[in-house]
Amino acid sequence: MKIKLHQGDLPDGLDLGPLVAIDTETLGLNPFRDRLCLAQLSSGDGVCHAVQFAANEFAAPNLKRLLADPKVTKLFHFARFDVAMFRRYLNVDCAPIYCTKIASKLVRTYTDRHGLKDLVRELLGIELSKEQQSSDWGAKVLSEKQLAYAAADVAHLHALKTQLDAMLAREGRTELAKACFDFLPARANLDLAGWEEVDIFAH
Q1: What is the pLDDT of residues 144-201, one digit of tens each?
Q2: Residues 84, 195: Cα–Cα separation, whole Å
Q3: Which CATH superfamily is 2-194 part of?
Q4: What span, in angstroms and rounded, lies between the C-alpha atoms of 79 and 93?
Q5: pLDDT score for 132
Q6: Are residues 22 and 150 in contact, defined by beta-carbon separation less than 8 angstroms?
Q7: What is the DSSP string of the chain?
Q8: What are phi and psi of 75, to 5 degrees?
Q9: Distance of alpha carbon 72 from alpha carbon 53, whole angstroms
Q10: What is the pLDDT tens value at each position of the chain, 203 positions in all?
Q11: Distance between CA atoms of 192 and 176, rounded to whole angstroms?
């Protein structure tokens, strides 16, 4: 996949179409401690647009516009985390959303392995490397290996969605999946408000 690295924002006038695969890289998994470092986007055309953020520099008006655009579906794997990071650091709510992890959990009930690597291996027959997952994404200069890893995280989401949509339709769970996707901005806001470990639907 070809990688185009942008500092601080997407370029003016960039049109990524109605379905955009998105992922983030951060310093860790705590949205209050571990800042947003990189956002990767792809329209499924073999090009990854990676937006690198410096510490405390999160203006990104073009990226915010895309994330909030109701005509553009944002395609994630584990959207709950990425949406929370965008809310925390860019102060923007993403919608509409499609999450391949949620779709997987609704239809691949024969397994408890719903990571991106597992999905890509089973549904697409491709092996992903996770070697750079725990590297320093806050570095001023990212390595070629880091950028390749980041691009790989969005490279296959369009193809995964096609496979998962067919499985959701087969099992009659398409509308249930959509309802889950629609709830994700609220779920992310609950995480940020302190209810990340609490099941509010429990008795």
Answers
A1: 999 999 999 999 999 999 999 999 999 999 999 999 999 999 999 999 999 999 999 9
A2: 12
A3: Ribonuclease H-like superfamily/Ribonuclease H (3.30.420.10)
A4: 12
A5: 66
A6: no
A7: -EEEEEESSPPTT----SEEEEEEEESSS-TTTS-EEEEEEE-SSSEEEEEE--TT----HHHHHHHH-TTSEEEESSHHHHHHHHHHHH-----SEEEHHHHHHHH-TT-S--SHHHHIIIII--PPP-TTTTS-TT-SS--HHHHHHHHHHHHTHHHHHHHHHHHHHHTT-HHHHHHHHHHHHHHHHHIIIIITT--TT--
A8: -105, 115
A9: 23
A10: 999 999 999 999 999 999 999 999 999 999 999 999 999 999 999 999 999 999 999 999 999 999 999 999 999 999 999 999 999 999 999 999 999 999 999 999 999 999 999 999 999 999 997 776 778 999 999 999 999 999 999 999 999 999 999 999 999 999 999 999 999 999 999 999 999 999 999 99
A11: 25
Residue 182 corresponds to which tokens in the numbers above?
A: 């629609």
